[in-house]
Structure formats: C-alpha cells, structure tokens
TrEMBL record:
Entry-linked Pfam families: DUF389
Transmembrane segments annotated in the record for this chain: 100-117, 123-144, 156-177, 197-215, 222-244, 256-278, 290-312
Origin superkingdom: Archaea
Keywords, comma-separated and alphabetical: Membrane, Transmembrane, Transmembrane helix
Keyword Transmembrane among UniProt keywords: yes
Organism this protein belongs to: Archaeoglobus fulgidus
Protein name: TIGR00341 family protein
InterPro entries linked to this entry: DUF389 (IPR005240)
Length: 313
C-alpha cells in the first residue's frame, strides 16, 4: 500500500481530481490517495501527465505507510513471491568478500580435483554439494533488478574471484600430485572440455529457474547443486589441464565462462519475469537501464564464447 500526495496549481489539481475520481481525497492545497503497490507506477505516470512540473509548487510525494486499514487493503491479494526487501536482505551479504565462503569453495574444488583425477563421479558430486556458488549469482541479479548496481557487480566479482581461487588451488594441487604420481586425462576430466551451444542454453535455463525458486520461497538446495555442477568441475578441470595439457585448459575455461554468462543472463531474465523491482522511481529507472545493458553485454559475451568454442573445437 502506498500513499500519494500531489501538490500544485489549483487548475492542475482540479484536472487531476477529475482524472482520479472518487478514490482521491481532495483538499484546498493538495490531493491524497492510497493505492496498491502494483498500481503506484501507473498512477504516478498519469498524475505527471496532468501536473505542470515547471512550477516549484508542483510536487508528487509517495510514501509507504507503516499501517493502513481500508477496504482496499482487504482486497489486496497475497503475493506468492518473497517480498523484495527480504530478497535484497538475503542477498546483500554476497556483495562482500567472505573469506569463509572462498575457503569452502576452494576446499570443494580440491575435493572435486581428487574425483576428476580418480575418475570418480561420486566424489565430484560430493564437491558440488559443498560449493556455495549460487549466492553470488542471486546477489548479482536481485541487486541489479532493484537498482543497487555496485552491490550487483561486487557479487559478480566475488563469484569470479571464488572460481579463480578454485582454479589456482587446483593447479597447485595438480602440480604437487604430479610430482609423486603421473597425471592422466580421465573421462571425467575430458567431459569438462566439451563445449556446446546446448550448455549455454542449459545455463540460461538454470539461472532462470534458480531465481524463480528464490522468489517463491522454494527450497534452493537442488538449484544450488545444479549451479555448482555447471561451474565447479569445469573450473577445477581447467586448473588440472594447465598442468597436463594447456591447450585443453582453454576449452574448460571457455565452458566455465559460458556457464557463468548463461547463469547470469538467465537470472536477470528470472528477476524480470518474477516482478522483482525497485520501489522508488529513480531506482527503477537506474535498474531498467543497467538490466538492459547487462543482458545485452551477457548475450554478446555468450555469442563470442560460442565462436571461441567453435574455433577451439
């Protein structure tokens, strides 16, 4: 529920009063009305069309009352999605560098490394369960959708940092293992060198589905495992292949970047479809601009990576 107060010239207020009809409370110097959250943007736009903003007395104020009892409030339907404020609060921590999360991701990478080297899929799956890679993707999408651009890109950088750290640890451990035991290209490693447009599409769909589950309060553990499956093993394989076969490492790295870009693009599409929006007008404007630019940039990156995978293949 929102409270809108309109101040302006008498002739403007009279025209706005006719436009709004019985839903407005009309006073000598202002008009007040209460509207549902979903109606706020449309009504403010209609009021702006009638209000001459060249005059300093022309003002539109929008408030969120702490408590309102009215017939309109009883008609408001319960939303299935999680409140935007709660989503932002849940994902805000992913914009900060968390040493604990990075260490857990690195440990998961070392576990995945042993599974890839031993050609043991069960160990690799266990590592996926441990890696906390879903949070930064949600942090990127949710914060960008509400206009918190800095928090969004910090979340994305934290994800890339964790993956880079995982790759570095994988390379170092692979070098140490190689000193005492010859490393071989196992089927599990080679599986992470296969690049395909299908993987890009799957990453986009996975990012989209993970945001839908978040916005509707559905258990995220399965989505988290799926996201880790698309990011952790290819990054670890790239680290191993830097020691065994550097040319193949390019393919694993390309697959990792494809999945990162696909997950982010899908998550942005997810927040748009889920209706996760900023509440303030100026934040909405910023969010729309950056959301569009980010989607275009990620789409171009996916196309570039696709061509790179074709050339590398």
């Amino acid at each position: 529920m929102r409270k809108i107060i309109v101040r302006g010239r008498k002739e403007d207020l009279e025209e706005i009063a006719r436009e709004l009809g019985d839903r407005a409370f009309i006073y000598d110097d202002r008009i007040e009305l209460y509207v549902q959250d979903s109606e706020t943007e449309e009504l403010v736009s209609r009021i702006k069309d009638k209000l001459d903003l060249r005059y300093k007395e022309s003002i539109i104020e929008v408030y969120k009352p702490e408590f309102v009892i009215s017939p309109a409030s009883r008609r408001e339907k319960a939303e299935e999605k999680t409140p935007v404020e709660k989503l932002v609060e849940m994902t805000k921590s992913y914009a900060s560098l968390n040493p604990g999360r990075s260490v857990v991701t690195a440990i998961a990478g070392v576990i995945a490394l042993s599974g890839l080297i031993m050609n043991n899929a069960v160990i690799v799956i266990g590592a996926m369960l441990l890696a906390p890679l879903l949070g930064p993707i949600h942090g990127f999408a949710v914060n960008l959708s509400v206009g918190y651009v800095k928090l969004a890109f910090r979340s994305a950088l934290n994800l890339l940092f964790d993956l880079f750290l995982t790759m570095v640890f994988s390379t170092l451990f692979a070098m140490m293992i190689g000193l005492v035991h010859p490393l071989q290209l196992t089927p599990e490693i080679l599986l992470r060198t296969e690049v395909s447009p299908v993987y890009e599409l799957l990453a986009v769909l996975l990012g989209f589905a993970s945001i839908l589950s978040l916005s509707r309060g559905i258990l995220e553990s399965l989505a988290g495992v799926a996201v880790s499956a698309s990011l952790l093993p290819p990054a670890v394989a790239a680290g191993i292949l830097l020691v065994i076969s550097p040319p193949l490492a390019v393919k694993s790295l390309t697959l990792t970047l494809q999945n990162v870009a696909g997950l982010m693009a899908g998550s942005l599409a997810g927040v748009y479809v889920s209706g996760i929006r900023a509440e303030r007008y100026y934040e909405k404007k910023v969010a729309r601009a950056y959301l569009a630019r980010s989607l275009i940039a990620l789409t171009l990156l996916l196309i570039a990576l696709l061509f790179l995978s074709i050339l590398a293949g």
